[in-house]
C-alpha cells in the first residue's frame, strides 16, 4: 500500500519433498532428480514395449499414441513446467518503493518455478486418496499467500489426475495381462484337447491296424494249413500209388525170380547130373583099367618070366593107370567139406565149395518155407501188412552212421517185430528183403546197416539166415560161387547173364557197369556184416564166416572181372577186422591173392581188368588192411544233422560210401 512503511513480503521458495523412503529394494533415489512428467510418460511407454517384447503371446493392446492429460473442463494440459504471472496493478507500490532493487523488471515479474519432479508415485493399489502426496516444508515463513495456495491446489489436482491416469493405465495393463493369461490358458487347453484327440485317433488307428494284421496273419496261417493238408493228401496218395506200384513190381519180380530160380535149379541139376555122370564114367573107367591091370599082372605072373621085357611092360601098364589113380585119390581127398565141383566137358561151369553150396541150399530152403507161410498168412488175413512193410523200408532208408541213429532205428524195428498186429514172419521177411535192396541205393551206409542187423538179429536169430539167404539170392558171389559160360548149357548170352544175376527191364538186360556196381554194394554189405562187433551182442554171422568165405573164394573161384570186384569190395570192408584177429594166417591168404589171383588176372591181358587189378595190388602193397576203413566206427553225432532234417523219404540222399572208390567199370 502507498505510504505504508511496512516492508513488502518476500516470496520465499518452497521445496517439495516426496514422502517416500530414500531407497527402494536397495536402490537409492537421487537427492535432486531432474525429470519432468513427459519423462515419466516415456518411461511408461518403454515399460509397455518391454512387456510386449518379453511376452510369449502378443498383447492384444498396444499403445500407439502418447498419453495426454486433460483438466476438469476437458482442456488439454501440458506436461511442461508451468509459470505463474502477476499483473502490474497488484504491485504498483512495491515497484515504487523498490525501484532500485527491481528497476529492470517493470512489466512482468517472473516468479519462481515449481517442478513436480520429486513426486513419488506408488504402484500399490492399496494407497489411500486421503493421504497427502506432497509434504510442503516452508522455509523462513509460516504463512502462505494466495499464489502459493493456488499453486498448491493446482499441484494437488495435477497429482490426482496423474494418479488417476496411472491407475487407469495399470488397470488396463492388468486387464490386458488377465486377458492374455486367459487366452493363453484357453490356447493351452485347446492344445491339450487336440493332443488328446490325436492320441485317441492314433490309438484307434493302431487298433484297426493291429486288427488288420491279425486278420491277415490268420488268413495266411489258414492258407498255409490248407496248403499243408493238400500237400499231405497228395503225398499220401503218392505213397499209396508208389506202394501199389512197388507191390506190383515186387510180385512181378517174384515171378521172374521164381522163373529164374527154376531155370537156375534146372541148369544146376543138369550140371550136377552131367558131373555125376562124368564122375561115374570116370570111376567106371578107372575101375576097368584097374581090373585090366590086375588081369594083366595075373597073366604075366602065370607066364614064364622074361627079364628083358618085364619092366617096360609093367611101366607101360602102370604109367597111365598110376596117373589116373593119383588123380582120383587127389580128387577124393581135398578138405573135409570144401570139395569143388569141376566139369571138364562143360568147361568147369559151376565153381564153388561143396560146403558153401550146402549152406546156400539150407538157407534158401528156409527162405522159401517162410515165403510160403507169409503167402498163406496174407491170403487168410484181412489185415493190410503193406503199411508195416513201408514203415520198415522207411526206417532202413533213414539209417545213418551215428550211434543214436543206429540205436533208434534198431529199437523201432524190434518194436515192429513184437507188434502182435503183424505176424513176425512177415516183418522179418520184409526186414531181410528191404535191407538187401537198400544197399543198392547211393546213400547206403554198410557199416551202420551192419550194426542195425546185429542189434536186431541178436534178439531174433532166425532173421540172420533169412537175410543172408536174401543176400545170396541177390548176389551169387556172397556164397561164394561162380558159373562159367558154356554154349551147351545156355541158349544165349542173355540167359547166362540172367543166371549170374543181371536184371532185365522191359526185355532189356542191364549193362555190365550197373551189374558190377550192384555186385560191389552187395559185397560191401556182406563184408561189413561179418566184421561188425557190438558190445554185449552176438554176431551169429561173424568173422568166422568171413574167414570161411575168403578161403572158399580163393580155393574154388576163378580170376575174372566179377570175382575181382567181389574180392576187392570184401577186403576193403572186412580186411581190417580179419587182420586184427587172424594176423599171420590172414597174411598167408593175402600172399595167395598176390601170387595166384593177381597173376591170373594179369595173364589174361584184358584192358578191362587193369583198373581193378591195380586197385587190389595197391591194397596189398600199401597195406591198407592196417588202416580202419572210413565209417566203421560210428560217430556220436553228425554236423549235418543240425541243418539237414531226418529224411522221411528218399528225396534226401547222403554221400555214398562207395562214391569214393575207384571207378574201374
Write structural notes for this entry.
The protein folds into three domains: 15-172, no CATH class; 196-332; 350-660, Serine Threonine Protein Phosphatase 5, Tetratricopeptide repeat, CATH 1.25.40.510. The protein is 60% helix and 4% strand. The protein has helices spanning 37-54, 92-97, 146-302, 307-332, 354-380, 386-397, 403-417, 424-438, 446-457, 462-474, 493-500, 512-531, 543-556, 561-582, 584-603, 610-621; strands spanning 15-17, 23-24, 27-28, 69-70, 76-77, 135-137, 350-352, 481-483, 504-505, 508-509. The strands form five sheets. It has a two-stranded antiparallel sheet with strand order 1-6. It has a two-stranded antiparallel sheet with strand order 2-3. The protein is rod-shaped and about 215 Å long. It starts with 14 loop residues before the first strand and ends in a 44-residue tail after the last helix. Residues 228-261, 295-345 are annotated as: Disordered.
The run of helices and strands is: EEEHEEHEHHEHHHHHHEHEEHHHHH
Strand content range = under 5%
By CATH reckoning, the class of the largest domain would read Mainly Alpha
Give the beta-strand count: 10
The CATH superfamily of the largest domain bears the name: GLE1-like
Helix content: 55-70%
Gyration radius from CA atoms, angstroms = 67 Å
Outline the biggest β-sheet.
Answer: 2 strands, antiparallel
Q: Overall mean pLDDT score?
A: 75
CATH architecture of the largest domain: Alpha Horseshoe
Amino acid at each position: 500500500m502507498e505510504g505504508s512503511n511496512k516492508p513488502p513480503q518476500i516470496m520465499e521458495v518452497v521445496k517439495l519433498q516426496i514422502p517416500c523412503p530414500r531407497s527402494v529394494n536397495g536402490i537409492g533415489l537421487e537427492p535432486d532428480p531432474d525429470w519432468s512428467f513427459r519423462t515419466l510418460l516415456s518411461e511408461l511407454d518403454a515399460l509397455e514395449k518391454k512387456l510386449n517384447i518379453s511376452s510369449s503371446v502378443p498383447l492384444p493392446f498396444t499403445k500407439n499414441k502418447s498419453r495426454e492429460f486433460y483438466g476438469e473442463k476437458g482442456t488439454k494440459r501440458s506436461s511442461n513446467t508451468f509459470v505463474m504471472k502477476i499483473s502490474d496493478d497488484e504491485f504498483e507500490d512495491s515497484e515504487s518503493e523498490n525501484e532500485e532493487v527491481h528497476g529492470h523488471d517493470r512489466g512482468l515479474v517472473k516468479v519462481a518455478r515449481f517442478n513436480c519432479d520429486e513426486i513419488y508415485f506408488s504402484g500399490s493399489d492399496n494407497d489411500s486418496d486421503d493421504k497427502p502426496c506432497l509434504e510442503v516444508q516452508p522455509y523462513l515463513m509460516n504463512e502462505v499467500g494466495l499464489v502459493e495456495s493456488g499453486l498448491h491446489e493446482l499441484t494437488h489436482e495435477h497429482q490426482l489426475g496423474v494418479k488417476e491416469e496411472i491407475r487407469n493405465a495399470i488397470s488396463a495393463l492388468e486387464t490386458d495381462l488377465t486377458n492374455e493369461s486367459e487366452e493363453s490358458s484357453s490356447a493351452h487347453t485347446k492344445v491339450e484337447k487336440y493332443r488328446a484327440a490325436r492320441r485317441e485317433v492314433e490309438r484307434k488307428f493302431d487298433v484297426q491296424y493291429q486288427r488288420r494284421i491279425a486278420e491277415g496273419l490268420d488268413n495266411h496261417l489258414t492258407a498255409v494249413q490248407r496248403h499243408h493238408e493238400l500237400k499231405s493228401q497228395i503225398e499220401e496218395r503218392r505213397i499209396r500209388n508208389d506202394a501199389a506200384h512197388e507191390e506190383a513190381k515186387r510180385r512181378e519180380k517174384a515171378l521172374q525170380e521164381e522163373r529164374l530160380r527154376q531155370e537156375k535149379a534146372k541148369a544146376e541139376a543138369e550140371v550136377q547130373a552131367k558131373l555125376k555122370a562124368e564122375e561115374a564114367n570116370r570111376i567106371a573107367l578107372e575101375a576097368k583099367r584097374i581090373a585090366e591091370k590086375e588081369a594083366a599082372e595075373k597073366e604075366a605072373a602065370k607066364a614064364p618070366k622074361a627079364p628083358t621085357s618085364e619092366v617096360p611092360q609093367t611101366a607101360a601098364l602102370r604109367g597111365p593107370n598110376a596117373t589116373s589113380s593119383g588123380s582120383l585119390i587127389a580128387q577124393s581127398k581135398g578138405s573135409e567139406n570144401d570139395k569143388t565141383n569141376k566139369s571138364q566137358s562143360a568147361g568147369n561151369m559151376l565153381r564153388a565149395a561143396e560146403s558153401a553150396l550146402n549152406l546156400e541150399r539150407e538157407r534158401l530152403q528156409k527162405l522159401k518155407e517162410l515165403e510160403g507161410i507169409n503167402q498163406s498168412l496174407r491170403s487168410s488175413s484181412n489185415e493190410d501188412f503193406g503199411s508195416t512193410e513201408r514203415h520198415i523200408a522207411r526206417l532202413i532208408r533213414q539209417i545213418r552212421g551215428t550211434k543214436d541213429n543206429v540205436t533208434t532205428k534198431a529199437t523201432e524195428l524190434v518194436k515192429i517185430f513184437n507188434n502182435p498186429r503183424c505176424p513176425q514172419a512177415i516183418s522179418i521177411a520184409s526186414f531181410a528183403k528191404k535191407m538187401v535192396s537198400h544197399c543198392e541205393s547211393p546213400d547206403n551206409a554198410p557199416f551202420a546197416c551192419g550194426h542195425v542187423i546185429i542189434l536186431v538179429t541178436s534178439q531174433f536169430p532166425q532173421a540172420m539166415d533169412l537175410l543172408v539167404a536174401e543176400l545170396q539170392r541177390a548176389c551169387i558171389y556172397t556164397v561164394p560161387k561162380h558159373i562159367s559160360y558154356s554154349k551147351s548149357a545156355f541158349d544165349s548170352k542173355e540167359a547166362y547173364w540172367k543166371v549170374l544175376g543181371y536184371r532185365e527191364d522191359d526185355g532189356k538186360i542191364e549193362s555190365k557197369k550197373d551189374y558190377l556196381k550192384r555186385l560191389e554194394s552187395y559185397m560191401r554189405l556182406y563184408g561189413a556184416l561179418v566184421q561188425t562187433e557190438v558190445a554185449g551182442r552176438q554176431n551169429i554171422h561173424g568173422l568166422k564166416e568171413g574167414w570161411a568165405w575168403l578161403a572158399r573164394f580163393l580155393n574154388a573161384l576163378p580170376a575174372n572181372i566179377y570175382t575181382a570186384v567181389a574180392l576187392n569190395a570184401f577186403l576193403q570192408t572186412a580186411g581190417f577186422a580179419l587182420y586184427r584177429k587172424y594176423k599171420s594166417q590172414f597174411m598167408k591168404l593175402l600172399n595167395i591173392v598176390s601170387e595166384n589171383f593177381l597173376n591170373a588176372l594179369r595173364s589174361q591181358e584184358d584192358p578191362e581188368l587193369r583198373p581193378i587189378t591195380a586197385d587190389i595190388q595197391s591194397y596189398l602193397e600199401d597195406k591198407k588192411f592196417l588202416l580202419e576203413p572210413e565209417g566203421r566206427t560210428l560217430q556220436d553225432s553228425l554236423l549235418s544233422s543240425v541243418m539237414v532234417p531226418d529224411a522221411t523219404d528218399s528225396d534226401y540222399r547222403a554221400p555214398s560210401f562207395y562214391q569214393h572208390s575207384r571207378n574201374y567199370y
